[in-house]
Amino acid sequence: MRVLGIETSCDETGIALWDDAAGLLAHRLHSQTAIHAEYGGVVPELASRDHIRRTAPLIEQVLADAGLGYGDLDGVAATAGPGLLGALLVGLSTGKALAFARDLPFIGVHHLEAHLLAPALEERPPAFPFVALLVSGGHTLLAEVAGVGRYRLLGQSLDDAAGEAFDKTAKLLGLGYPGGPAVAAAAAGGDPAAFDLPRPMVDKPNLDFSFSGLKTAVLNRSKEPGAADAAFVADLCASFQEAVVATLWRKSARALRETGLNRLVVAGGVGANARLREHFASGAAELGAALHFPRPAFCTDNGAMVAHAGALRLAAGERDGWDRSAVARWPLDELRPPG
Ligand code: KG4
Ligand code: ZN
Fold first, then answer.
1. How many whole angstroms from 195 Cα to the centroid of ligand 2?
2. The pTM is what?
3. 232 and 211 part of one domain
4. Residue 231: how many CB atoms within 10 A of its CB?
5. Rounded Cα gap, residues 133 and 251, in angstroms
6. Are residues 112 and 134 in the same domain?
7. Which atom of ligand 1 is least distant from the CA of 170?
8. Which domain does 234 fall in, by range?
9. In ligand 1, which atom is closest to the CA atom of 163?
10. Which end of the chain lies in a sparser environment, N or C, as judged by fewer CB atoms within 10 Å?
């Protein structure tokens, strides 16, 4: 089954073609960072307008890349939520219109399900069951994944998401948007032990996260004399990144222990962070646990994960009607197995 996937939940237009026998046929991404950079964050109305400009031409390009036409499609999938409503509606409406015109089955995809199944886009996909750490701009959560659509929430952030903490720290230090890559780049020459920043909730016997205290600690440090020096900023970024990564690892290791599972999947934009990947790799090796990441480009938002997750559900016979709408909020554990 050949499925066209459309992702427009935030500030990237992602389009891809997934074939459940042959794998990924083509994918393209248009990032809006240049549009939002001057505002220091995503402006929803500008995001929607740019998705309108980009979606149809990008679909044509992806089909051309694969040497295919609309007649070669067996289904269409588009992100239906959670995300920015206006942005979601662009991809969802385009997907539904295309499916309606070509008489194809359509499915609205859960953005976080697409993220946490993304390691299956790579060689040696993880077998079920596994523990998933989902770290994106809007969500930080740990889930026990027994199969597609079988998600048990183990813990989540009580305030800021990990990506949001990176974004806010970048803004605070004047490093620009998007914040994650900017903080990671600034941290490259810094000393991760230079500042003793809090590692929130690591000693609490649960699997929840909290990053707002860490953000406040960075804010206080950023007011110290010499805080504008490049070396100070590098040290502060490296220490902040280390605190986030160490906290995420401690909770992930606890989730493995508590579930008795020995497979960990990390997905979502913060999973692209090089220091996180390094820290998790050595931690997992120590525990003897298998570790799965999508490649960095499939950690951040993309069309491939949407085409893939949509194909899994379409192939099982699941379909959405033309009245399917976008949803800003959609808890992951409301999902059910395909079919
Ligand atoms: O999954 P994603 O692309 O979009 C959402 O669904 O939210 O995640 C975006 C988040 C942003 O907060 C961004 O700053 C963060 O992921 N991010 C990173 C890195 N690349 C993206 N954070 C840390 N290090 C990175 N290299
Ligand atoms: Zn995402």
1. 30
2. 0.97
3. yes
4. 12
5. 9
6. no
7. 14
8. 128-293
9. 12
10. C
